[in-house]
Each structure stands twice: as C-alpha cells, then as structure tokens.
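Protein 1 of 2
SEQ + STRUCT:
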Amino acid sequence: MKKIIITCFTCLLAINIQAQNDSKKNAKKEVTEHVIDSALVLTLDSTIKTLYSVISGEKGVERNWKLFKFLFKPEAKLIPSWKNKKGEYQVRYLKPDDYKKSSGTWLVDNGFFEKEIHRTVNTFGNITQVFSTYEAFKSESDEEPFMRGINSIQLLNDGKRWWIVNIYWTQESYENPIPKAYLP
C-alpha cells in the first residue's frame, strides 16, 4: 500500500511540475511574441491610429517594436528635420530599426504620447500623402503639450493593406508656427 501511495504521489508531482513548466513557457511566449492583427493596417485610418498608438506610452512602458516595424515597407524611412545652431535646416534618414535604437530608450525613460489633432489627406491611385498635425505629451494625463508639429506620412496601398513608405516631420517653433489650415 505504501508503494502505491508513493508511486501515485510521484506521478502527481511529475505531472504538476510539467504543467508548471508548460505554463511558464506559454507565459514567456505571450510576453515576447506580440500577436499582430492585420486589421490594424486594412484602412488608412487604422494604420495612422496604430502608428500613433505604438509609439505612445507612459514612462517605463516598453513599446511594441514588432508592431511598429510591421507598419512600414522594408525600405521605409523616418526623416526628422530641424534647424541647427547656424539656422540651417537639417534632415536625418532612419530606418524603423534605427528609430528604435535612437529613440526607444528615451520614449520609455521619459514617457511620450503623440496625439493627432488634424489630418489632411491627398490620394491618387494607390498612393496617399497625409499631413498629420500632432501634439506631444510626456503623460496621457498632461493637459498641455510640450511640443507640436506635422508628420508628412506617405503610404502605399498594395490592394491588401496599407504600408508606411516614409514619415517626414518637423516641430513647430516660434519662427515656424503651424498654419491654420493644418489645425482643428
């Protein structure tokens, strides 16, 4: 009888350990593998909303870089522009992975929410140009933005989904206010 009890106990213990290991593997898989819903890029509106949502988050919150990269054609560029100390406009050409490397830590360390406040859209055939005016906040609860600007977003519809081809942007400044035509 004692042998039967020990054997049953050992079997139950082994089953429990295996179940815990499987549970840990599945939990780790869920954390590391973000499921990407193709509905996020079926419409122009859903693609733009996904872009803004994927780079936005509170301080300490890691961004979903897999989803970020999913939005872009492989050859896509992100192109910030700014005025240097000499007053000359500069641009920098980044691939989505370069943007992650240059801005990813800053976004998490500081918190960043970019919210679209106005949009103008021009489409010809399968190409679209969007002027998307934004306000940026450190936290979603902030009432006043710390910056505003315009994202010039070029997109391609391949008949199945929308792809971001380029994002070219500049921030508003005292010398370069956002024109009324691009405000709500």
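Protein 2 of 2
SEQ + STRUCT:
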Amino acid sequence: MDSDIANPVHGQIQAELDANDVVLFMKGTPVFPQCGFSAMVVQILNHLGIPFKGIDVLADSGLRDGIKEFTNWPTIPQLYVKGEFVGGCDIVREMYEHNELKDHVTNKGIALNG
C-alpha cells in the first residue's frame, strides 16, 4: 500500500519538499527557533546565504511524528535539499565545518542569497 495514502501527513511533507528547494523541519520558526539545535541549523543556513523554508513541527503534533516516520530519523531539525534528506543538526554542522554544505546546495542548482 502506498504510504502517502496510508499516512496523509507523508503526502503533506512530500508536497512541501516538491514545492521548495530547501526545507527545514524545525521546532519553532526561522525568526524564533524553539530549540538550540533548530537555532544552530537556521544560523548556519543564514550565514551561508542558503534560502530555505522553515516549517514549525511544534504547531502540528501529527507533522512532528510524521516527519520522523517519513525519514526514519528520530530527531528534529531535519534539512532537505531538492527533496533529499540531508540530515539533522550534527550532520549539517559537520558539513558546514568541512565546507561541504554550501557546495552541496550550489551543486543542486540553488542560488545563494547575497
């Protein structure tokens, strides 16, 4: 059975990924993150000039649980680039520290701000 039919939240998540090049499922908003891990990823993305859509999983418990099932990844935040799951805070921070995140995004054809 198709997982989008079995779980409408997965369809909602896929629609966001299809509509936006870079999506960050996070606790809080980019302007007002509600956890340190989400705040760190927002800070890295903003520092590199990577445009992204932040989606607050605290506003919807179905989405908060659904995103973890969608990727089979237990933590939030979760960063997606061109529909591909990149990782959570630790992975994003490591990619940033090794100068890999900016290249990953630009190699996917995403123009940076600034």
